[in-house]
Amino acid sequence: MTQIIAGVFDDNAAADRAIEKLHDLGFADNDIDRFDVNPPGRHHGLPLGGDEGADKGAKGGEMGALAGAAVGGAVGAVAGLVASPLIGPVAIAGGLAAGAYAVLSASRWKRAPRRTSCGRPA
């Protein structure tokens, strides 16, 4: 029967010392597995990214979405008015409905809840 012994350490140095003690007791490298559990948003330490809890460049993005929806809605409404002699009132109603939906959808955008770092058992 296989036995599993698990440990939680405060830092890498403490985990390294525990592994060295296991080696001193006769455990082979293939008998020991080690892994780290990172807090939310801290998945990577590389300069490429992923080591930030939130993207600082995204701050204010909701206003950009709202402005884009408003411009898109206005363009849609104008396109509907221009097409009205050809297509009729359906084009006007469709353009206004699409614009209103875009503006309402963007204005109801909600910020994701802020994540807190997860604690581990003592």
Could you describe the 3D structure shown?
This protein is mainly α and 122 residues long. Helices cover 48% and strands 0% of the residues. The chain contains three helices and no strands. It has helices at residues 12-24, 61-87, 89-107. Helix 2 (61-87) packs antiparallel against helix 3 (89-107). The chain is rod-shaped, with a radius of gyration of 28 Å. The two termini are 29 Å apart.
Rg to the nearest angstrom? 28 Å
Label the overall shape.
rod-shaped
Distance between the termini: 29 Å
Can you give the mean pLDDT? 75
Count every helix, treating DSSP H or I runs of 4 or more residues as helices. 3
Succession of helices and strands:
HHH
Helical percent range? Answer: 40-55%
Share of residues in strands: under 5%
Q: Which parts are unreliable, with pLDDT below 50 for 5 consecutive residues or more?
A: 112-116, 118-122
Q: Describe the main β-sheet briefly.
A: none
